[in-house]
Design brief:
279 residues, 3 domains, 5-stranded mixed β-sheet, 14% helix
Length: 279
């Protein structure tokens, strides 16, 4: 049995405004996998290191670069059609980013449950079948695989110590990872980013102010009743409440662009980034 969580965020203990995103976190066969998915189109290889040699003639002397025969595994090259550098792009090795994400992931999960100290965290870079040719770098040992091989890779890395008995505490831990905040507008469009303020507030029908910290909220549903709005607030503790209100705004960070949404343009709000804590 595997638990797969898509697009999860890793909080930083020192900077609560920073989140590292993981394409997928998987718990299976006793291990936790941090998966980065890439859809590069073409032939993929590690960058070849180069060295400079000097060519001399009777009149001229010039320096040229040639391949040294050594690999620079901090970068990968995507050749579109042939092994021609003019038809290629160079990217940082995604495995390095994935490994750095794992360090933050471990820190967060250990703060929730010390038993994660004994759990293996395995980095995976999975390339899309059909788009990417990774025959030059493919490796089960190093975690460079195709998307279609993820489940086989999990079986390949089986941790017998934890795999024999399903560990619900591992599932609970990775499910505590936050995801982005989401707003569904009245046109049915989903917008994701980060809620800017720490609490939701709006004006009630009695001219009072309703306030609730986002960290206590799972979702808010807005029903337009013509004369006013009815808010249905679902809380993290499983309870819910209904509040008749007249107006309110939500500040939202759409990846470095701050927007304001009034209640008349909102259908649903789902809280993600505010629902985490260390320890």
């Amino acid at each position: 049995m595997s638990i797969i969580l898509i697009n999860r965020l890793i909080p930083d203990k020192k900077n609560y405004r920073w989140f590292g995103e993981i394409d997928a976190v998987i718990y299976g066969e006793g291990n936790v996998y941090c998966v980065e998915v890439k859809r590069y189109k073409g032939i993929i290889d590690f960058l070849q290191k180069k060295r400079v040699i000097t060519k001399k003639s009777l009149i001229f002397k010039r320096e040229i670069e040639i391949e040294s025969g050594e690999i620079d595994d901090s970068k990968i090259v995507v050749y579109r059609k042939t092994y021609d550098y003019e038809d290629s792009k160079i990217y940082p090795n995604p495995m390095l980013r994935t490994k750095s994400r794992i360090e933050k992931l471990k820190e967060y999960l250990i703060s929730k449950d010390r038993r994660f100290v004994k759990v293996a965290f395995i980095p995976v870079v999975a390339f899309c079948d059909g788009d990417s040719d990774i025959s030059k770098i493919h490796s089960f040992d190093k975690g460079f695989i195709y998307v279609s091989e993820i489940l086989d890779f999990i079986k390949f890395c089986k941790n017998k110590r934890f795999a024999e008995v399903y560990q619900s505490w591992i599932k609970d831990g990775i499910e505590s990872l936050p995801t982005w905040d989401y707003i569904k507008n009245t046109e049915g469009e989903w917008i994701y980013g980060e809620l800017v303020e720490d609490e939701f507030s709006c004006k009630t029908r009695e001219d009072g102010i309703y306030r609730i910290p986002y960290c206590d909220v799972r979702a808010i549903f807005v029903h337009d009743l013509d004369s006013h709005y009815l808010l249905v607030v679902r809380k993290l503790d499983g309870s819910s409440e209904e509040i008749p209100v007249t107006k309110g705004k939500v500040k939202f960070n759409k990846f470095d662009r701050i927007c304001e949404f009034s209640l008349k343009h909102i259908k649903e709000i789902y809280v993600g980034t505010k629902n985490f804590s260390f320890g």
